[in-house]
Amino acid sequence: MDKHSSLQGRTNSASYDRPRVVVRFREGVHLADRPDLGEQIENTGIGPWRRLLAQFPDLKLSPVFTVLKSDDLQELQRRAAAMDTSYRPADFNTFYYVDAPPETDLIELVRTLLRWNSVQTAYIDQGGPDPAVNAANDPRSVNQGYLDPSPDGIDAEYAWTFTGGDGAGQRFIDLERGWTLNHEDLAAHGATLLHGTLLDTSRAHGTAVLGEICAVDNATGCVGIAPNIASVDVVSFHGSTRPNAIIAAITSLAFGDTLLLEAQVALNGTALLGPIEAYDAEYEAIRLATALGIIVVEAGGNGTNNGGTPALNMDTYTTLGGQAILHRDPGNPQFRDSGAIIVTAATSAAPHTRLAYGPHGKRIDCYAWAQNINTCSSNDAGSTTGYTSGFSGTSGASPIVTGAALAVQGRAQAQLGYRLSPRQMRAVLSDPATGTLPSAAETTQIRVMPNLRKIFDTFFNAAPDVYLRDFVGDSGLPHTGAISASPDIILRPTAVAAPQASFGAGSGTENNAGLGYKAEAGQDNYLYVRVLNQGGANAVNVQATVYWAPVATLITPDLWNLVGTTVLPNVPTGEQLTVSNALVWAKAGIPAPGHYCFVGLVGTSGDPAPGPADFLNFDNFRRFIRENNNVTWRNFNVENNDPDVDDPTVPRGFKALAFLAPGAPDRARNMALEVVARLPEGARALLEVPLVYFEMLRERRQYGRVKIDSERRVAYLALNASGRTAFGEVPFPAKSRMAMRLLVEIPEQYRERTFQVYARQLFEREEIGRVTWQLAPRGEGN
């Protein structure tokens, strides 16, 4: 028998789905929203549609993504691209279903479409049954051992002893086809079906999934891993499609929320089942979710015929087009990372081994119990009192990992004050250092089962806690002080022979914020990073990454430019100031001489640093700059206090201090500026602003008559030279960069002294960035 003959003559009315083809046209191919899609393809030269119909009669085309209007989808993608700079928006309008009569050879249809120059890819869309395995032959003790300490379970019981470790404050959506939402152990959550229709024959499956994750602690039945979750809802792809159900879920989730994908698909028209991201449309929908900061957990699929062998080997799998899309390897350009956490199936007994049908390979992030799972259940009639001790499959494993994610996110929000991004969450849950490794006899790659005790002790508690100070006196704890005056990023025009002796503990310079110099153009410059560790263990292989940005009151990641990364082999506990070796800022990367803002990120495997993409969500950015000690800004500039004599745009006797006042990266927001000067008697200070900013102030009756330079399109606002000058809120457009200058005149008799002035930007009365200038006699670091 031909290897794909099982699809020929097969009816398109399987109880769980009907096989059909998805075609994805190349970027730029657009069809009008009319019934004559095939004729448009023929008449515009996209492809030989009539010849295709002659070979495969009665084909029908319909768009894949229909749950949102095109404009609304594009708005989601715009937000995602702003939040995740690695996200490349797909054109959802290029995806079409091709429905065919039951006798159609779908594999040959795919191969024919792949020969069209206008087609990026084509594949058979054949949904699988709910990814659970019949456990009738697997009777085992009826307990919830997956809640127990490692190596047996994930130790949810330990997580419950910490604020947030029970999922408090978290939101989650389950995607599949059926549930009994008024089950006695679930009803208290008030879950709602947000999209699609309920399939009665899938009630038992969905009810079991929710029971593992969030069965309430009510002295009845069982208890979920995250029983005190704040919100749970569901979306169904019954009466809809998987891509549309994912998009529907996205519209109801925010950064840090969790989406579980309880579905599997047939691969290449065979009986082998795998994760739904193997299909392009599902992949693009998932990638949109993770780019928006949504944690996605995905069942890996249950092998051949939903529980048989062979299992999916993700390292060797290829599409009908020959693409190794699931092989996560640096040398594989065909791999595509959706950002989801993919889960495989393992034994309930420790040491855990992969079950025969469980997928494996480098793309697997976590394994968990996939047999003997005690949880809620139901029946086709919607029983509200059912339970089972035999739930199984990657359907059973994925909720365990989802519950772990909700516990970790709850603890992160409670302790750290912010939520982890999908990248951070996947790194934490799949870390071999904090997870339960499979049996030494396991020869395939299935990564780890999360161990919440180790994660909580290491990531949240007893791990190294390396930090950079935001200002002299910063203790590494959340604060309301300055956030842009770090003494721990030091720029020098020449290399320092012994940086630890010069800048580290015992050097006498530990609390000196004025060690940095102006950048020298035309030569290499040298950056040194000072790191402290307030954690319970020494930090090894600490990575310190530095970015430069123009001097600005708000340094969002769209302004960052990478200088490089250096490694500190050991930062001892006990807050011993440790200095990196020189990080070379190559002359080719220095745009001009002068001052720059520097952003520093430090982290270890047990205390990972955030990445720039994590800051593009503005709410996350605000929490990070206050509450995450792995990041700091040095926006502290030492200038001589002599007047500028060579710049005709500077008023006579004044010193010009240039900076940008940017907008947020995502959307326009009302913000305010404030200048605080500590200048001597007789000093004067002005703020030079664009006319557009002055006009916004005047419209809001925040400023009256001022001096205006119409030729340069600027206004000069008088400042209090020995106190605070506050400007009210005005709308700062998204990604705007208003160029301003602080103009300061120091009386000649005081120019041998040192003074300080700063400008800061506020959002909702909270400081989100500042620039500080130290005006010193010529030669003191300037």
Automatic annotation (TrEMBL):
Alphabetically ordered keywords of this record: Hydrolase, Protease, Serine protease
Keyword Hydrolase found: yes
UniProt cross-references to SUPFAM superfamilies, sorted A to Z: Subtilisin-like
GTP-binding as UniProt keyword? no
The record's listing under Pfam families reads:
Peptidase_S8
Q: Domain (Peptidase S8/S53): give its ranges.
A: 200-433
Q: Specify the domain of life of the species encoding this protein.
A: Bacteria
Family indicated by similarity: Belongs to the peptidase S8 family.
Write down the PANTHER family for this protein, in alphabetical order.
Answer: CEREVISIN-RELATED, PEPTIDASE S8
What is the name listed in the Swiss-Prot or TrEMBL entry for this protein? S8 family serine peptidase
Source species taxonomy? Bacteria, Pseudomonadati, Pseudomonadota, Betaproteobacteria, Burkholderiales
